[in-house]
Amino acid sequence: MRILIADDNDTVRRGIIGLLSAEMTWTVCGEAKDGVQALQKARECLPDLILLDISMPGMSGLDVARSIRLEVPKAKILVISQHDPIRMLPSAIAAGANACLDKSLLGRDLVATIKRLM
After folding, report:
1. Domains of the chain
2. Which residues contact 92 (CB under 8 A, 6 or more apart)?
3. How far apart are CA 39 and CA 102, in angstroms?
4. What is the pTM of this model?
5. Contact assessment for residue 35 and residue 82, using Cβ atoms and an 8 Å cutoff
6. 3-state SS of the chain: helix, strand, coil percent to 5?
7. 54-69: pLDDT as tens digits
8. Considering all CA atoms of the chain, what is the largest pairwise distance in Å, rounded to the nearest integer?
């Protein structure tokens, strides 16, 4: 499975890469630091899954999700946010995301959430 990580925080991206590295069939095909770059990388990489931060410079994650849903419709989108995922989920789903996960729970829940989505 090909995964694109879109988050403006280098430390968060590195942490996610570390969490995903245990899964031998998963490959990080790209990284993006802002919304515009996330959309560009999604078009180029055609990932199976996009881990998408909500608060990024350039374009919000929700705007990116809307565009990705139109341009890369087969990709699953997992929104990652420091905002309350219960409050964020309706907006994320409306924008085209498949699920929402609290960044503070990535270490515990990321791999299991991805497996459920895929």
Report:
1. 2-102 (3.40.50.2300)
2. 54, 62, 65, 77, 79, 99, 100
3. 22
4. 0.94
5. no
6. 50, 20, 30
7. 989 989 999 999 999 9
8. 33
